[in-house]
Each structure stands twice: as C-alpha cells, then as structure tokens.
Amino acid sequence: MRRFALSRPLSAGLLTLALLVAGCHPSPRQKPSGSSGLEINIAHINDHHSHLEAHADFEIAVGGLPTRVAAGGFPRLTTLFKAQAGLPNLLKIHAGDAMTGTLYHTLYNGEADAALMNTVCFDVFALGNHEFDEGDAGLRRFLDYLRSGPCQTTVLAANVEPAIGSPLAPVAIDDYRRPYLLKEVDGIVLGIIGIDVRGKTMNSSRPLATTLFRDEVDTAQKTIDELRARGIRHIILVTHQGYEADKAMAARLSDVDVIIGGDSHTLLGSFSALGISGSSGPYPTVVKNRDGERVCIGQAWEYAKAFALMQVRFDDRGAVASCSGEVILPIGDDFRQKNGAEAFFAVDTATRARILEQLAQHGTARIVSPDPIAQAELARYAGRLDDMKRQRIGTAGESLCLVRVPGESTNRSSGVAGCESANTLARGSDIAQAVAEAYRQASRLADIALVNGGGMRTALPKGDVSFSTAYTVLPFANVLIELRLSGRQILEVLEDAVANHLDRNGSDGSHPYAAGLRWDLDMSRPRGSRLANVEIKSRADGAWQALEPAATYTVVTSDFLAMGGDGYSTLAQIHLAGGSVNTYLNYTQTFVDYLLAQGRVSRPAAADYSHKTVISRAGRRLP
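User: That's the sequence. What structure does it adopt?
Assistant: Structure tokens below.
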C-alpha cells in the first residue's frame, strides 16, 4: 500500500531543503520550485454505503414534469472516473463510508464494495465512521479485500491510532492506514491528509477501546505543520466529518488549501431546475483559512448518486488562486413520465428528444453508460445475491404479528398462524416491538427506540427467517437518527403520534411503539391526557422507572419520523434545529444484524411491551 514519493520531488526544491537543513523555516507560502500555475483536478465521491446498483425509480423534473430514470450506481461512477483520465494532475478520492447500507454489505462484508472500488483505482480512501461498524477486525477484512485488487489504494486517517498487535496494526501502526500520502504532480509534492470524525465513530460505531481517535483539528494542524517542515506547500485534507465541520475546521487551520469531505451526505451545487432540493451551498464552496487564504471545499452527496470534479489552480506563491468544478448526476436514458391515469410509462420518441434537449441545457444530470468491467463485477455479486437472499439468517420462535393500532378492526396478520386475535389485544404489534429492540441495540447511545406501526409491512411468521423475509418486513431505505429529547418532549412526541390518526384523520401507521419505554394509553381521552404512567427502562440494570419530564434522554428512530413523517412534528422541530445525529445505519440491515446476533427471535416479555394497558377510542379496555 506504500505510495510515498519522497526523494525525487523533494530534490526539486533544493533551496527549501537547504533552509530546512540550516534549521530555518521558509516564510509562509514561499514559492516551491516549479509551482507557478500548478493546476490539479480532483475527482471524488463519498458515502456510497454499499449502494452499488442504480436507483431504479429516481425522480427528477424535466420541463417541470416528474420524470423517473435510473440514477447513479457504481458502474456509472466508474465510467465518469475513467473519462477524466486525460486531465492533468488528476487525483481520485473517496472520502469514506463505503460500508453499511444494503444487502451487498450485509452478505459480502465489504468484498463487493472493494471489488467495485477497484474498478476506479482511487488514489486515496479516507476512513469513515461506518468503516468501524463491525469493529477493527471487520474493517481489516474490508481493507484486505481492497488491497487484494490491482490498485493498492492508500487508506488515510491521521487521527486514528490502532494499538500495535490489534487487527489494524498487527506489526506496525501504519500496517493498514496512514496519516497522509505524498503524491508528485508536475514535479511538485502534494500532501494529502486523512481525518475521520472522532466522536461519532467512538460513540456510534464499534472500534476497539484500544484504538485512539485524536481531535480532528489538532491532528490536522499538527500533520500540516509536519509536512510544511518537509517542504510540502500544497495541502489537501480528505475528511469524514461533515460539511459544516469542514467549513469550521478550515477557519481554524493554517496552510490548508483543499478539503474533500464526506459524512453529512451533502449535496452542493444548483439542482433546482431538476426538481432536486436540499443543496447546502455552492460547489466548490470557497472559504478562508486562518491565514486569510482560500480553501476549496467539496462533497458529492451520497449512495453512488453523484460524481464531483474540482479544478484547483495555485498561484506562484503556492496559494490557491481559484477553484471551480461541478457535481454531476449520472443517469440512464430510459425516461418515464405520467400518463392520464397518473401512472409512469415509457415516453415516446418525440418526448424523449425533448427530454434530452432539456437535460443538455441543465448540464447537471448527464446520461452515462455503466462501465462494462464494473457492470460485470456488479453482475457477479448480484447473481450470487439472489441465492444468498434465500439463506436463513435466524428463526422466529413464534409468529410476530403485525398490528398498527391495538384494538383495530382489521387483522393485518390474517393467515399467519398464531396471530388470529392479535388485532384485538392491548399489546399491539409484536413485529414493531422486535424492530424497536433492534434499533435500540444498534445504537450504542439510545435509551429509547421509537418506531411507527406502519413502518413494518408484514408479520414475521414462525419458522426460518431469510434475508428476503427481513427485507419484506422492512422494505424501505430508511436510516436511523439519534436525537436528544427531554422527558416532556418524549411525551409530546407520543401524543403527536396518537393524535395523527385520532384527531387529524392521518394514517394510523403513525401509532407509536418503543423499546425501553412503556405507557398506559387511553384513546377515549383528549390530546394531552391519553398517555399516563410512562416509564423508561435502564440500559444499565434493566429496571423500570418513571420518565422524568426535565431529564434528557437519547432516542433512536427512523429518518422518516425524525423529519416529521406521520405527524411527528415535535421530532421534526428538534431535527431541524440541529438536535439530531444521522447514524446512516440502514433500518433493515439493523434488523438483519439483530436476527443474526440473536439466532432466534420471539415476542418480548410482557413487561417489555410499550403498551402496558390500552383503552380503545370507544372506551373499552383491551385484554
């Protein structure tokens, strides 16, 4: 994995080296030999999270009309990376979180991701927090797959220090990851430094306790200073800490030129013409570092949906003179629009021609054919995936019934043995309770896990459970969000959930279920008095105690609920105010991991159901 280039490029700056040997340090931004007019091109992605296939029903607006296309997918990204091969001084960067998110990770443990990444041959890959989801040993397995290919991508994380003798440092601290890469371009050495997010990785992932995570800013500056002392004047940080953290970091650092980031899944650039909202700023974003000089910041959205290309030009002092670039959404050429019956259908030839013309005007969405080599690799894993989906991952010791609201008239588990009267009982949904428990175990911080009854789509019958079964129960692409709430706010959230279907004629899929929280519910009473005797279960000793209105608790839930779906408006307010952390743990994979760990899943103990007692809307106490 060694790609250090020291002797030849440094010999080009003899004056600088002479000063260093004499114990003198060059003044800031002293011109290195040959640096005048240096231009580099940086092609980058981040946070693909095992999303290797194209997004089949991605919706954009073309001419104001909703249009569905196949978008992204790793083979299209490979095509775009290869298309830049003729650009001068090209760097290919992945800013972390290759792991966790789809069955490709669950079933292949990084092998499929590494194979597709090796069709690009990245210069550097920066570790993200989710690289540690299966511990240091799981990360080593993925990195072994990555280094087994032809590329020998350098893995970066300057602020991550594994203990000698641990999986990531069996012999030396840099066996699997390095603090930086020195790369020569046009006779000039660039310093590329990796930084992983400290708190999130330690608290929400599963690194070994012996693996140290240093402060991001302190480590970045220390490493920059080390490289400056060796005559390096062009510094790129590859970070996995989020867009806002990148901007804040830039302002606190000296001598940083470029930050290529990940973690926050940030979309940069203007995509409103395509009906895509949520852009967080321009691409590139230009800010000032502590020296008052330009820093170019870039990030490329998420899930293999976007590709970014940045051009950076340096002046003859070695400082950034300008940066430019674009984020591209690679799409297929199969377009579908709505017909008179509001169903999407393949467009005719004339409509297709108009769509192509309009897309050419926008420029940000581009038709890209999948790279044949990458597509063949993906097909190899996809073919095995179909067989593996049928593999057993656990056993349901009894049927876990599907109920939205306790006492509802419709038995949603009809035909599932053991669920004949589930809809009439106070306990409500067994499968919701199991999924909530999976959420709570997946989060290392959460006191409470909260789910909505409509988030589960089928019951889980007694018997063997396959991957396909788990994805039938939880078919969406939701991820888990952690929020800090007071006990009083938790009560408001529960009231929101019940009021959505009782008072606002909203979906009864909003009805709440929880792990680590239980209550008495009286649906015959008005809002504000429906929930009583709310108790929380200690993670330390399993004891139940009263929920304290003024105390603060960590709640893990889906991004759908965190953003206010199904009437969860209190959660949305907290989320929009910045009071949440996205774990990017796929909710279905969380349940799969729970089944794999448990081996056998059954209904929880009666005392652990979230509904202790239930009185129906009609005033009848449910058994």
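The chain has a mean pLDDT of 90.
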